[in-house]
Amino acid sequence: MEILSQFLLRLAFGLAVGMAITSPQKVFSGFYRNHLYVTLGLTTLAALVLSQSMPLAAAFAGAGAVLSFVGAAVWLYEEKRVGMALIVSVACCSLLAAWCGLPVRDVWNLAALVTSGLVLGVTFAAMLLGHWYLNAPGMELAPLRRLLVVAAIVIFAQMLVVGAGLAAAVSYRSSVAVDWLLFVALRWSFGLFGVLGLLWMAWQTLKIPNTQSATGILYVAVIGVFIGELTGLLLSAESAYPL
Q1: Angle at which helices 55-76 and 2-20 pack, to 10 degrees?
Q2: Tens digit of pLDDT for each residue in 1-27?
Q3: CB 103 within 8 A of CB 5
Q4: Rounded to 5 degrees, what are φ and ψ at 53?
């Protein structure tokens, strides 16, 4: 349950950040309204999962759910400034809930929490925005390109954080099991390096431009980050270091 709640809250946090850095002057309001319902579902499920074991984390997740619902209503009336403020509030509540749910709370794990959430959410937001271009092909491509750049940057940051964690974990292990190495290989090959390659492919595809093909590539990238971050959570559950 701890892994599930962390995944849900990190995704909600990163998705809210992805929406917050996307210009409402260049993207239709429906993008924000519809995907606040996604954060509503993520935070509600996380609150239910945490309600018995971690009431404080559940309270923050519940607050994120309420703010998501209010934000969706605000975006229905295209109140952009208030809507953006509520999206940022959703991100803060999701991050606080995830932080309260961590078994080890230090700067290193906080950094991993932030980078993990951004990798998940910004990549997911890029895919959702790419899908939005299929409904509104007249939108500028600059917002999608920005999300691709941010996604690549946060993946590099995630590599630094979990790479240091991996080095520390290996140095304290007397022996390394084969199954553990396989999970580490999956986490790095498909979940990090593979996603970087897919983001580069999506970037090149936008030069044609072909948003439909770029969105298809981003679907695979989302699968990659989901598998990578879930694998990282599984590995980190048995370690004091973020992996």
Answers
A1: 30
A2: 788 999 999 999 999 999 999 999 999
A3: no
A4: -90, -35
pTM greater than 0.90 (yes/no): yes
Half-sphere exposure of 31 (CA within 13 A, CB side): 31
pLDDT tens-digit map of 138-165:
788 999 999 999 999 999 999 999 999 8
* Nearest one of 123, 93, 112 to 14, comparing CA atoms: 123
Q: How many domains does the chain have?
A: 2
* 138 shares its domain with 62: no
DSSP type of residue 51: T
Distance, CA of 6 to CA of 199 (rounded, Å): 24
Pair 223, 122 in one domain = yes
Print the domain residue range for 80. Answer: 1-101
Within 21-140, residue ranges assigned H as helices are 29-50, 55-76, 80-100, 107-135
Q: What tokens were used for 150?
A: 């941010």
Last residue of a domain, one of 49, 84, 101: 101
The tokens for 14 are 């990163």
